[in-house]
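User: Could you check the structure of this?
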Amino acid sequence: MKRLASILLAAAALGSCSKGNDTPVVPTPPAPAPQVDYIAKIEEFEQGKPDKRYEISFAYDAQKRLSSFVETYPQTTPAQVIKGTLSYSDEAITLVYEENKTQEIFVKPAEYRVSLDAKGKASKLQETHHYAGGEDIHAEENYSYKGDGQLVGYKPWYYDTATLSWQNGDMTKVVYSYRYMEVDQSRTDTRTYTTTTNRSYPDLNLFLATTAPTTKTKDLWSDQLGLRSTHLLSSFTEHFSHSESTTKKTFAYKLDAKGRPTEVALSDSEGTPRTFIITYLEK
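Assistant: Sure, the predicted structure tokens are below.
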């Protein structure tokens, strides 16, 4: 009996110590949602002149997804207006772009379709243009991503391959390979960045300097395509090996009290200096 009593006392003591050392498990709070600066409108002017060259306005649905945009070219007579409407599913994002309203060669709106994988990343980008004599279909595919979702390579429709390089969260170089006059050639795009965080949507970096000749709509899908850089663009240089030609654009920003770019001055080695005025959904 004494032995049994000793065992019971030891068990009780151990149980008491165990309860005293229990540490409550505190659940890890979810990471805060990244801040997004939703753009309502971008206006383009030739520097030093009051007349507007271009305007694009954006509308969003209740989930803050882009639902439509309207492009206006006020210097044409009459002013050209083109609308784009977006729809969403688990498998794809589709843009219907009314290019036929301003270009008679097209008989109906164009369609841009981003196919999505199970992780919500793009697996294919296809654009279809409709002519009286048939359809013209282009596609980018074979997207390859890093573990953090950044795009590192894909098959463009216009070039043979595209290879992307990243540093400190920013896309610093894109090399497109192609054949010209039976010789292997390349187009190399290099980018430098400011220290200002890029929170813009649509992605202002891709709006200012497109990543491919296929479409300027990639700024609408930079997150799905793994093209979003952490910082705002400072310069964009494009070099073609077959012609040894180089062009360069530089960007200077004015920021508001919230750190958002409200004005961008663009200098172009081959074009007219321009200014972009940006208005946000939330004042």
